[in-house]
């Protein structure tokens, strides 16, 4: 079987607090920085641990002026700054200088950006690529090793220039999204799952970089985003006029068929899914997405074959 | 209309003007702008309030903190639900006052003045919590027999679904709520629901509790007598904070065995916190206690991981509107 040879991952970034109220990643980054200061174990590869949006973290808000995790398109990174430039855009450029520049040979090899969601999504890899073998192998490794939480891979089909989030700065990158967890809360089970996921990822990278084995390919399952659906809203006030239906609430990644309930209006009416194709819902009732006009997202499930890989070092 | 308690001499009747007038009730949503059940319910009733009207009583739906609601934040400058202190309410008004203090003064003008005969009879204040508290009614007095009878009525109407009652009469932990402007303040707290999220089941539960409470007021105003009864409550004892380091950062999380176990007994030696490297910290203290507000997001900054309570049975005397 063909084994694909890939460069070692010599520089890796672990980021938390890209959203200042998603506490698992924030506490995990803080803990790792604290242990590093005390002289605890050193990494064999260069691991940069970053608190992405310290101002938002300090205020325990998602962002202060604009969503940092929408500031990494090539257009936004190259727009000239002025006195009125929002804090998060300036911070995005700093992070791009630290971990990038995006698209250049100097960029870090891998960015893992830690997030939480109020949706019942378990542990999700979120990536712009469905053919990044490094990310897909790490995903498969976590899926095999993690017993306490479902592990899935969600693919946003966007060209890298239009990719707007932090992990697109690295040569490889994914967001590690764990839920459900309320914003501004840390749940011990969610924290420990994220901690375990990060440790498994670091173990995999160490093993990959050693060049001592090749990682066998095979089939993987992933979800490619197709579309989103907004809440029904009052035509004048634009306020939402329905909630996610109780039969859809917490049912991320359970197939939604045409005719299935989606919303329950405040006046008691059930609104049903009118699409023609059954799709998999995710980010169902994510609190931060009300202002983005997203009640839920929908994906197609696909099966791919990933090749065997090994590090070039061998 | 008059509404006085049929009572033994030790209860203080609600004082009314001699002229009969309609009972005045308000429903507050958005005291915290990111607790969305109340925001959505009151927003709906401001447009069409038919559902909350009852014969003999005027019920006003009211968004308490519109600026916080607009930002979907708990507050803008300071917590509105702590702002109704005598000092704040009597402060000289001016632009340099925090927004919520100015707002408290305005609410006091509209629905108070707090502590006077002109104040609204009842204010229901709608809240959500990230804690797994289910439906909870929050009382500020153990001797408000009108409210105790309302609570009993709501509990019976909800059965078999439960409705817990939290009593906060603690001299240090009690706080000056927006509803405290009224003669009979009642908090409705429903969870778990994340901040900034509207869950359908939570929304409908809150709607139903309020319906039962308004039904009670209607029955009371029609002259129904509510016989003496007892009400089981959880009385707030103390606040327990997270372990913190010298910088004030928390060093442990609510333990998985305590997480979501609001109202369940916690005894000495039971797991309470889990450090970031997995070590268990146990509860040490007289017990059992009954924790509430376990891992409420808004209380991290108020140095509270949970409150402890003890179970108590309150007596409510018979209550009937005087004709």
From TrEMBL, chain A:
- Keywords from the UniProt entry: Cell membrane, Cytoplasm, Hydrolase, Membrane, Metal-binding, Zinc
Question: Where is the AstE/AspA barrel-sandwich hybrid domain positioned along the sequence?
Answer: 219-300
Sequence positions that bind Zn(2+): 19, 22, 115
Q: How does the protein's chain sit in the membrane according to the entry?
A: Peripheral membrane protein
Q: Which residues form the active site?
A: 177
InterPro entries assigned to the protein according to its UniProt record, in alphabetical order = AspA/AstE_fam (IPR050178), Aspartoacylase (IPR016708), AstE_AspA_cat (IPR055438), Aste_AspA_hybrid_dom (IPR007036)
* Record text on cofactor binding: Binds 1 zinc ion per subunit.
Give the cofactors, semicolon-separated: Zn(2+)
* Enzyme Commission numbers on file: 3.5.1.114
- Domain Succinylglutamate desuccinylase/Aspartoacylase catalytic as annotated: residue spans: 10-204
Superkingdom, taxonomy of origin = Eukaryota
Name any GO cellular component annotation.
Answer: apical plasma membrane
Cellular localisation:
Apical cell membrane; Cytoplasm
Q: What does the record give as the reaction this protein catalyses? A: an N-acetyl-L-cysteine-S-conjugate + H2O = an S-substituted L-cysteine + acetate; an N-acyl-aromatic L-alpha-amino acid + H2O = an aromatic L-alpha-amino acid + a carboxylate
A GO molecular function for this record? metal ion binding
Task: Give the main localization category.
Answer: membrane
Group of enzyme by EC? hydrolase
Alphabetized Pfam families for the sequence: AstE_AspA_cat (PF24827), AstE_AspA_hybrid (PF04952)
The family note in this entry says: Belongs to the AspA/AstE family. Aspartoacylase subfamily.
Q: What is this protein called?
A: N-acyl-aromatic-L-amino acid amidohydrolase
Q: Which organism is it from?
A: Denticeps clupeoides (denticle herring)
UniProtKB/TrEMBL annotation, chain B:
Question: What does the UniProt keyword field contain?
Answer: Cytoplasm, Hydrolase, Metal-binding, Nucleus, Zinc
Q: Look up the record and report any one GO term of the cellular component aspect.
A: cytosol
What InterPro entries does the entry give? Answer: AspA/AstE_fam, Aspartoacylase, AstE_AspA_cat, Aste_AspA_hybrid_dom
Places the protein is found:
Cytoplasm; Nucleus
Instruction: Give the source's domain of life in one word.
Output: Eukaryota
Cite the binding residues for substrate. 81-82, 175-179
Question: Main EC class of this protein?
Answer: hydrolase
This chain's protein is named: Aspartoacylase
Q: How many cofactor units bind, and how?
A: Binds 1 zinc ion per subunit.
Residues annotated for Zn(2+) binding in this entry: 32, 35, 127
Q: Which residues form the Succinylglutamate desuccinylase/Aspartoacylase catalytic domain?
A: 24-217
EC number(s) on record? Answer: 3.5.1.15
Q: Which cofactor does it need?
A: Zn(2+)
Where it mainly occurs, coarsely classed, is: cytoplasm
Q: Please name the catalytic residues of this protein.
A: 189 (proton donor/acceptor)
Q: Which HAMAP family match?
A: Aspartoacylase
Family membership: Belongs to the AspA/AstE family. Aspartoacylase subfamily.
Residues that hold N-acetyl-L-aspartate according to the record: 74, 189, 299
Q: Where is the AstE/AspA barrel-sandwich hybrid domain?
A: 230-310
Which GO-annotated molecular functions does the record name?
aspartoacylase activity; hydrolase activity, acting on ester bonds; metal ion binding
